Every structure is written in structure tokens, then in C-alpha cells.
Amino acid sequence: MIEPIPSSSGIAAPSTEILPGTETVALSEAALMAAAQQQSGLSDWGDGDFREGFRILLRACRQEAGLSAVGQQWLRENCLRWLINRLQIQETLRQYPEILQTPIRRPLFVFGLPRSGTTLLHRLLTERPGARVPLFWELRQPAPPPEAATRTHDPRIALAAAYIRGIEALFPAIASMHFMQPDTPEECYLLFQNSFAAFDNTFFFHIPTYHEWICQYDLLPSHRYYKQQLQILSWRSPGEPWILKNPGHLLGVDAILSTFPDARIVHIHRHPRQVMGSLCSLQGNVLNLWREHPLTDKEVGEIVLNRWQLPLQRLMNVRATADSRRFFDVQYSDFVADPLSVMHQIHDYFDEPPAPETWQRMQQWVADNPQHKHGEHSYTLETFGLTPNQVDRKFADYIEYFKVKE
């Protein structure tokens, strides 16, 4: 049970946390929405624009994802949480419409393929004092609005910790691939999941029809909803600028530029030949975690190779006409060779020279977090039936456009 969250907002947290083995709601749109209403005590869904993505996600997972009993349970639990989040968000905005006047000024986004150094880049950028950093626990349950005074001991932190422990029990190697803690910065794809229009859902499940849908869907409404959630998180726990990171942003760069007219983007580039093996290993493990019959390594290689071509092409199309001053490009090889020098370049480019404390914190973070601190992630491209030439051909336009170094 979630204890009531001490908050001057007057909005109670959901009364029940969904834990493995406790939820038997049918995997249908109607049953899940009814359960979310019962558990939250709320019934206002707002404009309902999430229903299309929700319906397509459920159908694709039933028909294509090959889910095991554990996978079905995990999907139910997460769909319920996303639905309860929506109800809580709607109630928050109903009671406090002034939240939508909360400014989100000059947010800084980290772009890049997964496994390309985006996490290190994001973590160093978030060492800036005063910046608004998205923590895992609040991304997972953004409403009721977090309070600055209780941000270090909000009850949702313990719930996020329990969730992480559950994932680590199923997938012990996750820490060496993507280390998570409840109170550290995390990717903001969790906020997009509340709109059921999240490219990252295709990372967790092999769902081709959902992938096809999200790649042609108008992402502007989901990005507006994403901004509203940032406003909720900022309302009573402010900070500037927001520093945000999610590989899925590659698909929605045009929606980001429209939703945040003063957004700044740091894009890190690692050669796809180096990315693909690591990404196949991570995504293969995650996909098979929820499947009745595991995908073969060759099947995983084909899925991963084809998943990122369209997002990168869309990014290049937008970059061709967008204001180049809003983007700063970083080569992965330069970054790992001298991360603090790259930090200097980024801050100089955006005309934001940081205080000495920022450099001290960055230096300390680098010293405290050497590569492979949480274990080494071993992989090869060939394990997944891929060759260097095959990868080069698939991403030739991207490699040439950004002169990506090997």
C-alpha cells in the first residue's frame, strides 16, 4: 500500500501499488481501465487521445509479442500504472490548472543512439547546481506533484526501489548494461508511456504493428502531454534548466522543437558498428525476459538493425532545415577521451559558462564512476548474425551526414 503522500496539493496517491503476483486483471482495454478507476478512486480520463495507442499496444502484445505468463503480468502491471498516472495527472490539473502556466525554459535534451554514451553525457550535464533533473521515481509516478521539501524521502522512492529490485531479480545482468537507482537521473521515456505513444515500448516487446503505428503517428499531442508532466514535476519542485535524455527523442525531434521553441539539443554520435552489438545484447535480453519462447540471436539482430533507421532518417530530415544553432554535435570518441573538455565545449556553445562548483562535481562524478563500475557488458556483432558491412550499409546516410568517427 502507498502511504498518503504528504503534500499541500491535497491529491492522494494511488491507494494500491501493483506488485508482481498480486494483479489478475484481464489484459483488455475495458478491464484495465476499470481496475485503474477502482484503485485510484478517479474516473476522469480527459480528452481520451491515449485510447488509440493503448488499444494498438494491447492488441500487438496479445498477437505478436509472444508473452509468457510473467510477461503478461508485467504488461498488466505497467498498463495499470500508466492508466493510474493519467487519472492522477488529470485530477492534478483539474484542481490546479495554474500548473499549466509553469514555464519550462531552455530545456536541454541529450540525443543519441542507445549505447552511445548518452547516459554518461546526461549524468555529467545534470551535475550543474540548480538544474532540474528527472529522477527515476518521479518519472515513474509524476503525480501528485513532488514537493521540494520531501523530494529525498517521498514514499514513491521506496516503490521505485522495489520495482528495480524486481527487475534485477529477473535480469541480474541489467546493472552492467543500464544501472538504475530510484533517486538518480533516468530517461524520460517513462512520461511518454503515460500517453501510450512511446517509441520505447518497442524496446520492451517485439510488436511490429505498434512500431509501424508509432512511426507514422502525429507525435505532437504526446509531446504536449509530456510538457504538462514536466510542468507538474516543476510546480513545487522547481529548477532550471530541465536536462532530459531519451534515445526515443530521435523519432520526435520535430515535435520537441515545436513544443519547446527554445530547446537546446546535444547529440552524441557513436559509430553504429560499435553500437549495434551492445544494443542487440541489451534488447535481446529484455525482449526475451517477457517471452514464452525466446527469440534467436539472429532474430534479435534483424529487429535491432531495422528499428533505428527511420528515427535517424527523420532526425536528418529535420536537421536539414532546422536552426543549426539549437544543436551541438559530439563525437563519442572525443567524449570518452576527454569528457570534461567536451563539457566545456557544450557550455561555451550555449553561452552558459558554469560555476567552479559544477566542474568540481563533474570531476568527482567521473572519478567515482569508472567504466565497468557495475560489471562489464560483453558482446559481439557477429553473435547476432550481423556483419560490419551490413551495419555500414544500413546507416550509411547517417554516418556520412554527421561524419561519425569509428
Overall mean confidence score, pLDDT: 90
C-alpha termini separation: 50 Å
What percent of the residues sit in helical stretches (DSSP H or I)? 40-55%
* Structure classification: mainly alpha
The CATH architecture can be given as: 3-Layer(aba) Sandwich
CATH fold field value? Rossmann fold
How much of the sequence is in beta strands?
A: under 5%
Number of helices: 20
Give me the strand/helix succession: HHHEHHHHHHHHEHEHHHEHHHHH
Q: What Rg do the Cα atoms give? A: 21 Å
| Main sheet characteristics | 4 strands, parallel
**Contiguous runs where pLDDT drops below 50 for at least 5 residues:** 1-23
Specify the CATH class: Alpha Beta
Describe the global form.
globular
Count of domains: 1
Give the name of the CATH superfamily: P-loop containing nucleotide triphosphate hydrolases
Order of strands across the widest beta sheet?
2-1-3-4
Beta strand count: 4
